[in-house]
Amino acid sequence: MILKDILGRMHTRRGWATFGALALVLLVLLPLLNSAMTPGSALHLPDHLVRLLGKFCCFAIAAVALDLIWGFAGILSLGHGVFFALGGYAMGMYLLLGIRGQGVYRSNLPDFMVFLDWKELPWFWHGFDNFFFALFAALWVPGLLAFAFGYFAFRSRIRGVYFSIITQALTYALMLLFFRNDTGLGGNNGLTDFKHIYGYPLALPSTQLALYVITAGVLLIAYLLCRYIVTAKVGRVLRAVRDEENRVMFCGYDPRAYKLFVWTFSAVLCGLAGALYVPQVGIINPSELQPSNSIEMAIWTAVGGRGTLVGAALGAFLVNGTKSWFTGALPEAWLYVLGAMFILVTLFLPQGVIGLGTRLLAQAKATRKAGAA
Length: 373
Description:
- The model has no long low-confidence stretch (mean pLDDT 91).
- Strands 1-4 form a two-stranded antiparallel ribbon. It has a two-stranded antiparallel ribbon with strand order 2-3.
- Strand 2 and strand 3 (200-201) form a beta hairpin.
- It is globular, with a radius of gyration of 22 Å.
- It folds into 2 domains: 1-45, no CATH class; 48-291, no CATH class.
- The protein is built from 15 helices and 4 strands.
- It has helices at 2-10, 13-35, 47-73, 80-97, 111-115, 131-155, 161-178, 205-231, 233-243, 245-250, 255-281, 291-304, 310-329, 334-348, 352-372; strands spanning 191-192, 196-197, 200-201, 283-284.
- The protein is mainly α.
- Helix 8 packs across helix 9.
């Protein structure tokens, strides 16, 4: 009964049917179109699109994580790229240590360390030759940073635009730090030249397909976890904090604890997204820490529909799909298109694409009822 109540609270039957259909498309249909169809078939999904869809799924996880705090707690972060990049660097360190002796210099040290005349691994690299340690680090390092940052920020009652500014300052400061060669993280070039993950060659299409399936599965699980949170009691408190934090305090709740929990959980999801992103794109460098990347995450969420979770994921696919086309056809026009998209959505679609679709469906339903009457 408890499980039935939880599932009923999260979605209606129609909602679960839609979720199941989407899961079948992402986890079964698309992989079959890639592996079962011959390359000459019109239904064949090319390998490069599998990589692209896997990357989009990583972005969708980050967008859902951002929507959890922005749409439901009113916390606009312009620094979530930090947590995404930290997760990516943790996985990149594991992948780079996995090719010891196979680099240009045939050394047990990564090539960039040999080039910079490093004599031994820095202390914080130890343990990253183990896959599970690296995966755990991709979660707890962003989570620990978010907890420490959020604890002092929320304790000082920093919120609104001031919180957004200091999160952007955080990502800019870390970007400058990671650009330095003496940090031991590859400097400007970052970490690259990965060859295999957990023993499987990254160059094989089958490995990339498996990474896509895992990433799509993690996206669905992340959505369900966030949906559970926002439909539970903590979700109702978060909405109250978003709408009127002072009244929540007068009712006996501590808004700081709720905000700190959801902020840290969101950062952990972003770190996981970054860890899944790196083996699929083959590189991680300080450019992922650019403030513009964090701003783009907010644009994905706004375009899809803030406060819906599914809209944030949809926005990540829509914006990045548009970006992929424009950067290939009209690369100089993309930034103008991105800015125009954000302005138009803010002015005319405050509820995003999901809000527009809901409004059109409601109008169609009303029209049918009027016709029947």
